[in-house]
Design brief:
Helix content is 55%, strand content 13%. By secondary structure, it is an alpha+beta fold. β2 and β3 form a beta hairpin.
């Protein structure tokens, strides 16, 4: 795994490298404590809004999963009839 500014992060995986008093994320260097300070400064409104959006997305995922399952079922049935 590359370290420091050569990380390969994407939406499903993020890597933080911590070295002495520095943190590396997405090819940028941050001082130690930067992210802790940012998290402590998140407003309750932001947390509430984000949580509500996450709940909405989870409901949509169930619908997408059901639609995909139905599509696969129909595909399987049509394949078996051939």
């Amino acid at each position: 795994m590359p370290m420091g500014i050569n990380q390969q992060n994407h939406i499903m995986r993020a890597t933080l490298d911590v070295w002495e008093d520095k943190i590396f994320l997405n090819e940028k260097e941050y001082p130690a404590g930067h992210f802790a300070a940012e998290i402590l400064n998140i407003s309750p409104e932001f947390i509430s809004t984000t949580a509500n959006r996450a709940i909405d997305l989870m409901a949509l995922l169930a619908d997408v999963r059901d639609a995909y399952d139905e599509k696969m079922r129909k595909s399987f049935l049509s394949y078996n009839r051939s």
